[in-house]
Amino acid sequence: MKKALSVFNYLVFLLLGILFLWLAFRNLNGKEIIEQILHADYFWIFLCITAGVLAHIARAARWNILINSMGHKTRLSTTFYAVMTGYLANTAVPRLGEVTRCGVLSKKGNIPFTELLGTVIAERIFDMITMLLIIITVILFQLGLVGAFVDKHVFSPLFSNFENNLLPLLFILGLLISLIIVFIFLWKKYRHRLKKYSFYHKVSQFAKGMVEGIKTIKRTRNKGLFLLYTVIIWGLYAMMIYLPFFSLEATSHLDFGDALTVMSIGSLGIVAPVPGGIGTYHFIVKAVLYELYGVDQASAASFATITHAAQTLMIIVVGGLSFLMLFLQKNKVENESS
């Protein structure tokens, strides 16, 4: 039943991605898009892929800082292989990558899985805050352009739906608050009985490991280096948008600030629970280029297709090789015993 539900969820989000893909390309000249893709300057796409690999190396190095702060030692190469294997898993099933990279590194480095998962959650929270800061900065510096776009496509629909569905939303909110209160009451009343069961101790150990991992950012001594790697990661992410601008004539006039805008808003399409960000990324990036910067719709769709394909290809190739390298490596425990 659980597997059937997982398959159902996957198919729903895949169909959602296909729907957004159709919305992005409907009423466009397919031949014109194919022609632009075939005649793009792929030197800039190669540089884009290189920037992506460097960003993931920096991400692995940053993750090592958190892992080392817990007293564990890992090689940068092994951590990088784990990161790329996680991204490879994400292309198939959204959110599976975080669990996958923790699982393979736990096995290779003999590190508790829950602690690694806690560090990944800490990373994600920090990255989410960073992305929000970038979005706010982009809106402030390009208020005329981005402010109108966000108001038209985000705030207006949001508040319109909120007003039209006020009673159901209040009911759901009240229900959630009631459930939280009931849970707290039952927990305080029956927690001593629950301690008798092994399931309680397993959940408790899992939660403690997660908390220890989340605390790593606060506990690490290399906060400056952690911040530096974060700047490098997001700077390279922006370069993955900026460099491909020069691959098409229609986008070659755009600058690095425009790349930050496309990256920050386009990243919402990548984080959507759709396999590989397919459809949602194309829809959002095309809309940003067309409505903010006046790029014709065919060129905007071509750009979204090229950049998404380049990122996906890089993850499949490098992620596949990383998985192979992890498979060929011996476990840390085996190396120590030999």
What attributes characterize this protein structure?
338 residues, mainly alpha, 15 helices, globular, disordered C terminus
Short recap of the structure:
This protein is mainly alpha-helical. It has helices at residues 2-25, 30-38, 42-69, 76-92, 96-109, 113-141, 143-164, 166-194, 198-214, 216-219, 223-245, 256-271, 280-293, 297-328, 332-337.
Amount of beta strand: under 5%
Q: Can you give the helix content as a percent range?
A: over 70%
Number of helices: 15
What's the mean pLDDT score?
79
Radius of gyration, in angstroms, nearest whole number:
22 Å
**N-to-C series of helices and strands:** HHHHHHHHHHHHHHH
Biggest sheet architecture: none
Assembly level:
single chain
Give the tally of β-strands. Answer: 0
